[in-house]
Amino acid sequence: MSQLEPNIVQLVWFIVLWSVCCLGFLQLAGMYPLESRATNIPASLVIVSTALWIALLLSACFYAAAELRWSSIVIVGGLLFLFIPEPFQAIPERWRNSSAGLVVTGIILAATLAAFSVFTSNPVTSLLKSIA
To answer: Global pTM?
Structure first.
């Protein structure tokens, strides 16, 4: 395995980050345009979740570019993006299209960013720590 990707721990972190990014994208995609979202979901909640998602997306991309081979990024990222919609469909509709579900998504995005900044050491982590 080390001939394919020598940084296994970093690859596992990328898998976690990219999986959360893909799940967040699928949920947030249903909230835009803001006029088409469900009436019980405040626009501010959608915007805050989107900001967290963008931060996680940029962190995942910068982390992958700094730590992994490009072939690993393309293969693993593509496979995850291809197969993540299936587990997303298993999430109950009331969680996917409600403000409670969006709050949970925001908490998961924030927790993933926090875990990423605590448990990894790279330039992205130092950037995130300087922002916080």
So the answer is: 0.81
